[in-house]
Amino acid sequence: MNHLASCIFACTLFLWCILDEASAFRWDAALRQRSSLSVCEGQNLTIPWAFQLDPGEKAEVFEWQRKYGLDAALTITISEVKDSGTYTVIASITNAKNKKKKYTHTVSVLVLVSPATSDGRMHVAMLPEPVIVGSGTEVDYHARLSCGTFKNLGHPPVTVVWTLPAGVNMASTTYQNGTFYFDVPNPVVSGLYSCEINSTDPALDCVDRSSDLKVGDSVFLDGTDIQLKLMNHKLQAERNVRQGKLEKERQRQEGLESKLNQESKKLKDLETKLRHEQSVLETKVDQVEKKGNGFSDCKEVQGLKKMHWLTSSKKFSLRIDLTDFHGKTAYAKYDSVSIHGPRHGYKLVVSGYSGTAGNGLMKPVRGQTLKWQTSNNQPFSTPDHDRDYCSCNCAAERRAGWWFYYCAQVTLNAPYTHKEVSDVNRLVWYPWKKWKTLKATEMKIRPKE
């Protein structure tokens, strides 16, 4: 109970204090707190702030303030856009008991500026070229309408509303440099398309009632004709794209062809250079051979050169086929053969014998006293350049160039006979026919797989 009594006493004291400080001051209802006012640019605006007092009250001070800055008067003369803002009046009131209290009242002011076009009218027209909407492969062509031309859009800036033949209102697609643009939806419907300032824009209130800006403008579109034009533009654009791709491909091929021609010319120049270098090198080799080795430029030497180049480039095997005057044949095959260069006297190196004629190039026949009469690992001798190990000149005696060591048990370059005779200085292969002459011989090389 004591707690409840204390609470009732406190509440009663609080209400008494409120009633004691209460004032009958009140703002006139003509302009409510936080109201909004508008005025056209260049006109005067009086803010109708009024109030009522009870007997015994007096208003001592009224302070006029404007949001974000400057003091303002009750009346705005020749209003400008910069005068827009929030205005507040602060009233200092003294009641009958000489107690002071402050009251505030706030209102927003918007200074309107009328929009203006270049000739006082709005003009609607269709652009001569369609616009592309979308990107990549998802593109479409649309007819575009223009509405303008505005010198300024007023304050706050106005917008326009486009009305389609079906009565549907739509906003502009874009605005640029005083002109509103509208992309007509596809398929284009025939009829009137109009453009007018949005009736909800405050700045429209400052436009003179007789101004053409109040009514806007319209244009008639033939939907069928426009659709055909759009299709033609799209087809032409696709043709241009294809032609562009073909042109790029043509240029690319021309570039490749030019590059190939350049590379071909480089290869031809390189071939010419290599041929010249080869010619110079062959000349030097011939000079060295003639001077240092004593070989004449005979057919045998020319063949040895080719054999050396061939067997130096890859591995070859050698096959020798022999025929006697009775029609019998035999052969000797060597798995490996090579001819060394002129510095080594075109030395013959063979290995890996097989066949029916006997190993005449590598192994002397059993019973022979001159076991060194083999051709393997021997340089090539000619009558004018003796390189064998005999005190005689084997090539001169045999009248043939061959790979002689101490002469040899085979000679396949010796003079030919037309009948079989026994002559060591003729065409012979001792392991097969001893010193009996042969009717035909063949030496062949083949690249190894």
UniProtKB/TrEMBL annotation:
<protein>
    <recommendedName>
        <fullName>Ig-like domain-containing protein</fullName>
    </recommendedName>
</protein>
<feature type="signal peptide">
    <location>
        <begin position="1"/>
        <end position="24"/>
    </location>
</feature>
<dbReference type="InterPro" id="IPR002181">
    <property type="entry name" value="Fibrinogen_a/b/g_C_dom"/>
</dbReference>
<feature type="region of interest" description="Disordered">
    <location>
        <begin position="241"/>
        <end position="262"/>
    </location>
</feature>
<feature type="domain" description="Fibrinogen C-terminal">
    <location>
        <begin position="303"/>
        <end position="449"/>
    </location>
</feature>
<feature type="domain" description="Ig-like">
    <location>
        <begin position="115"/>
        <end position="205"/>
    </location>
</feature>
<dbReference type="InterPro" id="IPR014716">
    <property type="entry name" value="Fibrinogen_a/b/g_C_1"/>
</dbReference>
<dbReference type="Pfam" id="PF00147">
    <property type="entry name" value="Fibrinogen_C"/>
</dbReference>
<dbReference type="InterPro" id="IPR007110">
    <property type="entry name" value="Ig-like_dom"/>
</dbReference>
<dbReference type="InterPro" id="IPR050373">
    <property type="entry name" value="Fibrinogen_C-term_domain"/>
</dbReference>
<keyword id="KW-0732">Signal</keyword>
<dbReference type="InterPro" id="IPR036056">
    <property type="entry name" value="Fibrinogen-like_C"/>
</dbReference>
